[in-house]
From TrEMBL, chains A, B, C:
Keyword Repressor: no
Protein species of origin: Actinomadura syzygii
Matching InterPro entries: ClpP/crotonase-like_dom_sf (IPR029045), Enoyl-CoA_hydra/iso (IPR001753)
Name of the molecule in the record: Enoyl-CoA hydratase/isomerase family protein
GO molecular function list: delta(3)-delta(2)-enoyl-CoA isomerase activity
Keywords in alphabetical order: Isomerase, Lipid metabolism
């Protein structure tokens, strides 16, 4: 479902579960991997990546449909994952190898930087077209990481951004052909791995205070 | 004074009162039109437009001069108009056919998107040159919709932005020749009319919580 | 250590103390100069500039090392300087003639606009590489003046921005060759000197409420 490897100073966390939706087993596996990563001592950085044509499609709507009474704690768990990445004591890079939709797009936004594949895949917040609003935590995360104009367009129109469009809109920082996405992300992460991880975590915690408060608050506000 | 028509799924609200300043009668007419629009069921979107060389020049300073004791409730009413647009349960597009100054510029900013005329007209926040500050609600609205750099320049220098400059600064999203401004705005609005209006309103309400709190709070802070 | 001259309507405050670090004597001299400037009546604007290859390198770490028990009030004094500039009742322009690092970079950000020298000097927030986090006030100042993407990159990577890179990232508004930095800053300041200073100060105070609250709060949060 996931695979955690170390490449020099860089932890590479591959999501390998099809659309990489956030089912409970997927979340548990990612949480365990981040527990391992967070114990790192010395230089370190994290890259997350999907496989095939998906980075992640976000919430597991099938599971949610069968567990409606667990909606709120489930959202809280997803929020906690975003908050965990925002405060992770090391630099982080998302290797967006394919579609990053909805909660999966927000997962990419919770990283320091994103490298996105050019020939295929979209960054998209389709909630408006699914008849869904954003939780206070999600709304705060998106607003904190994107420009006002980009956040507005992405959230109100549900636009599907190609890699080039996402870079022009400031959503991702680099683009690469399919075969180069992961290497470029690892290279970027390696270039940052010598930063003091504790300080990196503290700086982000200070920068994103309001977003973290929203993510750590009641999931539905 | 105003004219409300429906063009397919798009409501077109034309301001037709010269400089389209926010006198009490103008505000009452716009409020009534928005009441009608808000009752829409099914696909829908709103375009607002001025006539001739003015979109709107904002506060009615002549009326205010004659009603100084009504300054605070008057500002509250203008704030409520901005808040109403920010929370309107359907996509909104401003067709800026001419000057959008001061409160009229902020009215445009309260829409989802703006199409601005290229050959004539400015977007301008001239308050600094009028010896006026911004209310907390207005300041929050501007900051929430523009980049930090653009908001600072616009508010501190009172710069008059042409359509091309406004687009480069991220103030407007599209530009068009005079005859094309309204058609382009209607086309953009029509492309968004199928969005679930309730969800659109909820998403904006979540995105602009602090600005809405300021707009709904005491007008002078 | 510093020199305050008046050039037409423009006050030119030169820092002339090597790296222009914020030692107590330097801070006292700048505070005195700002006291003088703030008494201005009529048209006025302020330009600050360094000398040689330094605009300012920020905190005086040597002095701090010898006065560890004064760390918190010292930070409070630096915060107060930033807050003073943000609320100064006249337009302000930083002439960044050389390196603007750490607290010195933030000093530039506390001005309305910055002109930066093209052939030499960097804008840099190197805290992460010094093993230091940002105080709540500093973090809030940076976030309020830069785009989310630029603030993140600058704070997490400690990138050294040349003038051209700083302009592309929205950190500075103009660039100039060495000999032209100060004249360009004075020209820009002069063009704004007729603004009503009180109103300028009020507009900024309204725009930067949260940053000012953080700068005026407990220095370490």
């Amino acid at each position: 479902m996931i695979d955690l490897q170390r490449d020099g100073d860089v932890y590479v966390l591959r999501f390998d579960a099809g659309e990489n939706r956030f089912g409970p087993d997927f979340l548990a596996a990612v949480e365990d991997a981040l527990d391992t990563v967070a114990k790192n001592d010395g230089p370190g950085a994290l890259v997350t990546a999907g496989t095939g044509k998906f980075y992640s499609n976000g919430l597991d709507l099938d599971w949610l449909g069968a567990h409606r009474d667990e909606f709120e704690p489930y959202l809280g768990r997803v929020h906690a994952l975003y908050a965990r990445l925002l405060t992770l004591p090391m630099p982080t890079v998302a290797a967006v190898n394919g579609h990053a939709f909805a909660g999966g797009a927000m997962l990419a936004l919770a990283h320091d930087f994103t490298v996105m594949r050019t020939d295929r895949g979209y960054f998209c917040l389709p909630e408006v077209d699914l008849g869904m609003s954003f939780t206070p935590g999600m709304s705060a995360l998106i607003r904190a990481r994107l420009s006002a104009a980009t956040a507005h367009e992405a959230m109100i129109t549900g636009r599907r951004y190609t890699a080039d469009e996402a870079r022009a809109a400031g959503i991702v920082q680099r683009t690469a052909a399919e075969a180069d996405v992961l290497p470029a992300a690892v290279e970027l992460a390696a270039s940052l791995a010598a930063k003091n991880g504790t300080v990196v975590g503290e700086i982000r915690t200070g920068m994103y205070g309001p977003a973290l408060a929203a993510l750590n608050g009641p999931p539905l506000g």
